């Protein structure tokens, strides 16, 4: 029974605040905490471990009150989920500025952070939790679809999808559970194992997975048959990844793609060692944590060895951002890093084009508004087959959570076009209320995360976060509705810094100008960052556009 009163986001076309930018911030904040969206509403946790929307319940009430009374020439300052000041500003800039979880680098450890958190002085903002633009599992589904489609294009040629291809993976929990559906959306066959049956059952119920097979052989046979028939399907089986991957390899099967999303980032509370039942593993976790971690890492070693064997035999193998290679390396698999992470393998070329996760939310709360925007997007980009496929399938397969929203990846240039088009839809009354546009912090110009998004940069600048700060500054200056700067999202405290941007298309002429500026500068910084690091695709993107890069004489 809830002891706290967290309101649902207001919907409809009537303001409950003094302007659409503060209204958008209020609706998106409360949407992050919507019962269909938040993982743990009572504790204000939106997603991703402890990613919170506000520091505590008092801070949440104070933010709501501040947004409701905020004037159009004032800006609300949020420090780690607490409203700390309302300052005079001006009409054309952000109504809210947010800084979450930031620590001076020398003190940037979980220990120091947790101490401050326990004292009520900080909160973990993750990426879109503390910056109020999370839209539920659609975000991870689309990102996963984009990755598999990028892999298909890289390996099988432009315009290809995964038709007739076999993808082997493991870990179909909270986020990894998007893999089976994403592969199916890309028309491939997904063969996935998870050590816990209830997790697989959950994916079946939510239609993220088609079939649960009783045995390894049954799952393999069905997968091979489906590949032959070129039938898109997702197949689950209960098993430890280290055992299942070896079993598939020993049978002589060579999947086209091999990856994994078991929770290997956490060897104690996430990953499950093999050669024991889950119940035995859970008991060992509490009785002897050190032994558990040792066995967990040894299992990661076997798991990675199987993946390396697939790679040697011709499969395309990649790490999916869960630190699995590191665990294996620590137990002596010295060549664990022989297969790449997903960003250098597939996503970086997209980042070089200024591409990234562009999302929008219908503030009206009416799903029909998203249908209108989907159709308008297809008209705006008639040639983009991948986008059309995604939008059609998303309409059919994705259930909205909280306020209706959509996500797709758009390049530099395209985001600006889409933003202006949305503003026009609002102006002409084709949608019932303003549309808010935002993105993940995992984007081309906004994130610095050496173990993930900026792994293996061409010039070795993986850990240089000047870029994320410049991204924040230009988006703030150019008139976003709210901007944010966070530390530790995705990979944990000490490992990343990143900025967020949200802008509300309210239909006004002023917003035409602001949208043009922000949706240019935001991905523009991504193109500049990658061009500066030496990526030719980024330099070519800059050359073909109006982007000026003085050091490169572009
Ligand atoms: P989760 O804890 O919800 O799910 C992990 C799943 O792995 C569980 O279902 C668990 O039963 C299963 N599992 C654990 N050990 C196993 C083993 N040895 N064999 C088979 N199954 C096993 O976690 P999640 O949110 O799905 O995230 C999974 C991992 O992916 C995390 O490490 C996360 O950091 C990473 N991740 C990366 C990205 C990205 O951008 N690439 C996005 C999301 C998550």
Automatic annotation (TrEMBL):
HAMAP family xrefs: HutU (MF_00577)
Necessary cofactors: NAD(+)
One Gene Ontology term of the molecular function aspect: urocanate hydratase activity
Family stated for the protein in its record: Belongs to the urocanase family.
Cellular component annotations (GO), alphabetically ordered: cytoplasm
Protein's job: Catalyzes the conversion of urocanate to 4-imidazolone-5-propionate.
Pathway(s) served: Amino-acid degradation; L-histidine degradation into L-glutamate; N-formimidoyl-L-glutamate from L-histidine: step 2/3
Residues forming the catalytic site: 408
Record GO biological process: L-histidine catabolic process to glutamate and formamide; L-histidine catabolic process to glutamate and formate
PROSITE patterns, per database record: UROCANASE
Catalysis performed (reactions): 4-imidazolone-5-propanoate = trans-urocanate + H2O
UniProt-annotated binding residues for NAD(+): 48-49, 126, 174-176, 194, 199, 240-241, 261-265, 271-272, 320, 490
Organism: Bacteriovorax stolpii
PANTHER family linked to this entry: UROCANATE HYDRATASE
Entry protein name: Urocanate hydratase
Gene symbol of the encoding locus: hutU
EC number, UniProt record: 4.2.1.49
Keywords per UniProt: Cytoplasm, Histidine metabolism, Lyase, NAD
Cofactor note: Binds 1 NAD(+) per subunit.
Principal place of residence: cytoplasm
InterPro entries assigned: Urocanase (IPR055351), Urocanase-like (IPR023637), Urocanase_C (IPR035401), Urocanase_central_sf (IPR038364), Urocanase_CS (IPR023636), Urocanase_N (IPR035400), Urocanase_Rossmann-like (IPR035085), Urocanase_sf (IPR036190)
Localization: Cytoplasm
Transmembrane segments: none
